Amino acid sequence: MLRWLVRTMAPALVLAIYYWSFVLSPVPLASDRPIGSAARVGQRAMEDPPRGRGTAGQVADLGLDTELAARATDLYQRGRYGEAVEALRDLLQRSPNDHLAIGRLARAYGHLGRHRDEAVQWERYLLLAPRTEEACPALPRAYEAIGETAKAFEAFERCRSLDSTDSDIVFYYARARERAGDAKRAIQLYEEGISLAPDYADMYLGLARLRLRGGDVDGASEAVGRAMRHDSRSADVLLAAGQIAARQGRRKDARDYLLRALAVGETYVDVHLTLARVELEDGRRDQAVTHCDRALQLAPGSAEALALKRRLDEARR
Question: Given 3-state DSSP classes, what are the helix, strand and coil percentages for the chain, each rounded to the nearest 5?
Fold first, then answer.
C-alpha cells in the first residue's frame, strides 16, 4: 500500500516542488529591490488566462515531465545556470506556455550576462503570465544592459502602465534616465516617486545627486536631509551628505559623514575618494594619501583615483 502511494504521489510532489520553487526562489538578478504588484491592463487585461496559459494548464501540459522539471529547478538553485538554461529550454519545447519556466529562463540568462536573450524571454513572459511584476523592472534593465536605451525607456513606460502606483518602477526608471544624462526627466520621476512613497530614501538621494550636479547645493542639502530622516545608516546617503557638506565648506561635518559611511561599507571607493579630497583641502595630506591609496587598491584602474594620486604627488613637491 505504501509503495503504491509513493508511486502515485511522486509526480505530484515533484511538480509541487517545481512550482513552489519559483515562488520561494531569490529575487531575480536584475532586481535589487522588491517589486510591487503590477496590474494587467491593455492587451493582457484578462481576468483569467486562457486554457494552457495558467498554472493549471501548465501542470496538464507537463504531463510526465516531472523529472525534467525537477532537474531544471535543481540546476538553477545550485547556480549551474548554463545547464539550467538547457534543461529549461527542453522543458519549454514540451510545455511552451509555462510562464514560470520562461521567467526562470530569463533570470538564468541574466545570471549568465546574456541580457539580449533575457529580454526576449521577459517579453514572452509578459504575453503569457497572469501576473507581470516579475518582468518589471527586469525587462527594461536587460535592455539597458545591452545599450538599447530607447527600448529600455519604452519598457519602463509599459511597466508603469501596468501599475501606475508602483514606486519601485518609478525609481528604476528615474535611475535609468539619470544614467542616460536626462536630468530634467529624472528629476520629474524622482519627484513623482516621492509623491507615491514619501518614505522612499533613494528617491530623495537621486534628487539630491541631480540638484548637486546642477549647482543647487541648498536644494541638494534639503533632499539629502529628508533621505537621512528615512535611512540615516545608508552609505549612499552618508556619502551624499558628506559631499554636500564639503561643497558648503563644512569640512568637519563632511569628514564625520564620510567616516560614518566607511563604517557601513569600508570598500566604498567613492567614499575614500571624497574623504581624500576633504583631507587634502584641510591640509591633512598623509590622511588624504591613505584614502587615495585605498581607493586605488579597490579600483586599480579608476581614472578619478589616478588623477587624485597625481595631484597628491604634486602637492608633496
Answer: 75, 0, 25
